[in-house]
Write a structure and sequence with these properties.
The complex is a heterodimer of chains A (about 300) and B (about 220). With about 300 residues, chain A is mainly α. Helix content of chain A is about 65%, strand content about 0%. Chain A is built from 14 helices and 1 strand, in the order αααααβααααααααα. In chain B, about 30% of the residues lie in helices and about 35% in strands. In chain B, the strands form 2 sheets. Chain B has a 6-stranded mixed beta sheet. The longest helix of chain B has 18 residues. The chains are: A mainly alpha (about 300), B alpha+beta (about 220). Chains A and B meet through helix 2, helix 3, helix 5, strand 1 and helix 7 of A and strand 1, helix 1, helix 2 and strand 5 of B. Strand 1 of chain A pairs antiparallel with strand 1 of chain B. Chain A: One of its GO terms (molecular function) is L-serine ammonia-lyase activity.
Chain lengths: ~300, ~220
C-alpha cells in the first residue's frame, strides 16, 4: 500500500503503469473486490457527477438564495466568444460552479473529496473531455488518479475544512484534479505529482469561512478558482516545469498550516468573510435573527 | 491509515451541502439507529465545535435525524427528515454545546423508547467518513486503521471465548481487543479490531451465539 506521493510515483514508474492502475489494484487488494466491481462503482460516481453538471447548467438556486445561476451566465458568455482567458478553462470553471450550485441546493452530488469541494474534479474532467475525447474508461481512470492523490492527502494531512481550512478541501480537490488532468493528457506519473504540488502550493493558507455556515459563499467561487488553478498547474507540469518543494513536503506543510489555523477560520462561520458586515447581514436575514440580538 | 478505500475519497454519493456536516452527520445518526436496532421514539442531539456553530447552514440537524430514520447519504428524503420525524411523533431536541472537544465536528446522540436508551458520541473526520468514539459511556479505543466490530453482550463466562473462536474458525486475526462493562453480570461491550474484512455471514454467526445482544461492523 502506498503511503505517500513518492511511493505512489515509484510504484507506477517502476512497473511501467499508470497511477490509475496502481489505485485500482490497491483497491482490489484492500477490499477483495474484482476489477469489474471497482470500476463499476467508480462508473456510478461518474454518472452522478455528469447528472449534477447537467442540472447545474440548466440553472439551479439554493434555498437561501445566496447562490445559483452563475454556471448558466458563464456558459452564455462562452458562447458569445469574446472571453479573455481560454475556452477550456472557462468551461471547467462553469462546470465546477454548476456542481457546487447543485450541492448548495441540497441536490445529489459525489463528494470529491468533500461535498464543499465537489466541483473541481468533475468540472475539469468534463471540460478536458471536449479537447481530448477520452473513452469512458479513461474518464473513470481520471477519478482513480484523483482518488489516489486524495488518499495520500487524507491519510497524511486532512480533507476536512473544520480541521484544516479550505486548503484541505478545495486545495486538495484542485491538486487531485491537476494530477488527473496530467495523466489523461498523456503525462507521466511524476508530472502528475508535480502538478499536484504546484496547485497545492497556491492553495496553502486558504481558510474556511463560510457565510452563515452555508456551503455557498465563498465555496462555489472557490471551486471555480480551484478548477482554473488545476488546469494551469497541469499545463505547467506538462510543459516540464517542476516544483522545487516535493509534493509530499507541500502536503505536510498544508497539514501544519491547518494545525496552526485559528478555530474562527475553520468552518465555524466566526471569522473571515463570514464575519464581514455583509456576511453578518446575510446570516441574520437567512436565519431571521435580529442583528441587535446577535451583537450582544 | 484511516482512509483505506479510494471510495472514501471519490464518494460518497450524497445529498448536499457538506460531506462532513451532512453526509457524516447522517452516518452518525444511522449508526446510532443501527446499534439501537429499531427506530427511537425520542432523540436528544448535542452538537459541539463546528457542528454547533454551523449545523443549521449545513443541514446537520436534518441529516442526523435522516440517519435516525435509517436514510443513507444519498436518500433524498433526508431533506424532509425533520417533517418525517414529526409525522412519526419522534421527539427531537437539539443542544448547541460550548464545550471544546478534541475533534471540531462532534455530536453526542441520545436516543430511546419505552424499552431502552442508547448514547453515542460520533466524530466526522472529513469527506463523509465518521468514527464512533463512545458508546453508552464506554470509550471506544479504535485506531480507525483496521476493520472493527462492536459486540454488545451479557457479561457471562464464555461469551468472549465464543466470539474469538468464531473469528479463529474463519481465519480472521484479532489485532486489538477491548472488553468493558459497567457492572458485573450486566451489559458489556467487546471492541474488536481485526486484520481482515469481516463478511456479514460471520457477523450473523456471532449474533446467533448465546448472551450476544448485538453485533455491528463499526469500521470497514
Amino acid at each position: 500500500m502506498f503511503r505517500n506521493v513518492a511511493e505512489l510515483v515509484e510504484l507506477a514508474e517502476s512497473q511501467g503503469k499508470k497511477i490509475s492502475q496502481i489505485m485500482i489494484e490497491q483497491e482490489m487488494q484492500v477490499t477483495g473486490r474484482t476489477r469489474e466491481q471497482v470500476i463499476g462503482m467508480m462508473d456510478k460516481n461518474l454518472e452522478v457527477m455528469e447528472k449534477a453538471i447537467e442540472r447545474g447548467l440548466n440553472g439551479v438556486h439554493s434555498h437561501s438564495g445566496l447562490t445559483g445561476g452563475d454556471a448558466v451566465l458563464l456558459q452564455e458568455y462562452i458562447k458569445k466568444g469574446n472571453f479573455l482567458s481560454g475556452e477550456i478553462i472557462l468551461d471547467a470553471v462553469s462546470k465546477a460552479v454548476a456542481t457546487n450550485e447543485v450541492n448548495a441546493a441540497m441536490g445529489t452530488i459525489c463528494a470529491t473529496p468533500t461535498a464543499g469541494s465537489a466541483g473541481v474534479v468533475p468540472g475539469t474532467l468534463f471540460a478536458v473531455k471536449n479537447k481530448i475525447n477520452p473513452t469512458r474508461e479513461q474518464m473513470i481512470d481520471f477519478l482513480f488518479v484523483s482518488g489516489a492523490f486524495g488518499f495520500v492527502v487524507a491519510n497524511n494531512a486532512s480533507i476536512s475544512g473544520a480541521a484544516g481550512g479550505c486548503q484541505a478541501e478545495v486545495g486538495s480537490a484542485a491538486g487531485m484534479a491537476a494530477a488527473a488532468i496530467v495523466e489523461i493528457a498523456g503525462g507521466t506519473p511524476s508530472q502528475s505529482a508535480e502538478a499536484m504540488a504546484i496547485t497545492l502550493k497556491n492553495m496553502l493558507g486558504l481558510v474556511c469561512d463560510p457565510v452563515a455556515g452555508l456551503v455557498e459563499v465563498p465555496c462555489v467561487k472557490r471551486n471555480a478558482m480551484g478548477a482554473a488553478n488545476a488546469m494551469i498547474a497541469a499545463d505547467m507540469a506538462l510543459a516540464g516545469i517542476t516544483s522545487r518543494i516535493p509534493c509530499d513536503e507541500v502536503i505536510d506543510a498544508m497539514y501544519k498550516i491547518g494545525l496552526s489555523m485559528p478555530v474562527g477560520l475553520r468552518e465555524t462561520a466566526q471569522g473571515g468573510l463570514a464575519a464581514t458586515p455583509t456576511g453578518r447581514e446575510l446570516e441574520a436575514k437567512i436565519f431571521g435573527i435580529s442583528l441587535d440580538v446577535k451583537k450582544k | 491509515m484511516k482512509y483505506k478505500s479510494v471510495f472514501d475519497i471519490i464518494g460518497p454519493i450524497m445529498i448536499g451541502p457538506s460531506s462532513s456536516h451532512t453526509a457524516g452527520a447522517a452516518r452518525i445518526g444511522r449508526m446510532a439507529r443501527n446499534l439501537f436496532n429499531r427506530e427511537p421514539k425520542w432523540a436528544e442531539i448535542s452538537f459541539y465545535g463546528s457542528f454547533a456553530k454551523t449545523y443549521k447552514g449545513h443541514g446537520t440537524d436534518v441529516a442526523i435525524v435522516g440517519g435516525l430514520l435509517d436514510f443513507d447519504t444519498f436518500d433524498e428524503r433526508i431533506i424532509h427528515a425533520l417533517d418525517l420525524a414529526n409525522e412519526k411523533e419522534m421527539k427531537i431536541t437539539f443542544i448547541e454545546e460550548d464545550a471544546l472537544t478534541d475533534h471540531p465536528n462532534t455530536a453526542r446522540v441520545r436516543i430511546g423508547d419505552d424499552n431502552g436508551e442508547l448514547e453515542l458520541v460520533g466524530i466526522s473526520i472529513g469527506g463523509g467518513k465518521i468514527e464512533i468514539i463512545e458508546l453508552n459511556g464506554f470509550e471506544l479505543k479504535l485506531s480507525g486503521h483496521h476493520p472493527a466490530i462492536l459486540v454488545v453482550h451479557e457479561d457471562r463466562f464464555g461469551a468472549i471465548a465464543n466470539v474469538a473462536n468464531i473469528l479463529a474458525k474463519h481465519q480472521i486475526n484479532i489485532g486489538h481487543m477491548d472488553v468493558s462493562r459497567k457492572e458485573k453480570g450486566k451489559m458489556a461491550l467487546m471492541t474488536i479490531e481485526v486484520d481482515q474484512n469481516i463478511e456479514q455471514a460471520v457477523l450473523d454467526e456471532i449474533t446467533a451465539l448465546p448472551n450476544i445482544t448485538k453485533v455491528t461492523k463499526i469500521v470497514d
